[in-house]
Amino acid sequence: MGDLFNGAFSTVGRHWKQLFGMALAVYGAATLLVVAAIAIAYSAVERELRVLLDTSHDSPPSWDEGAPLLTAFVCVWLIAVLAMLLSTVVVQTSIAVVVQDAVLGRPTTIGAVWRRTAPRVPAVLGTLLISSLIVVVPVALALLGFVSAIVILATQDDAPAAGGLALLGFLGTMVTAPLAVWLWVRFSLAPAAVVFEGQGPVKALRRSSVLVRDEWWRVFGISLLACMGAATVGSMVQYFAQFLGMFPTMMMSPSSYGPEPDVAEIFTGLGVAMVVSMVGGLISQIITTTFPSLVTCLLYVDERLRKEDLGPVLAEAAGMQQQPAPPKPQAPYGPAAPENPPVSP
Question: Could you report the per-residue pLDDT of 204-220, keeping only the tens digit for each?
Answer without folding.
Answer: 999 999 999 989 999 99
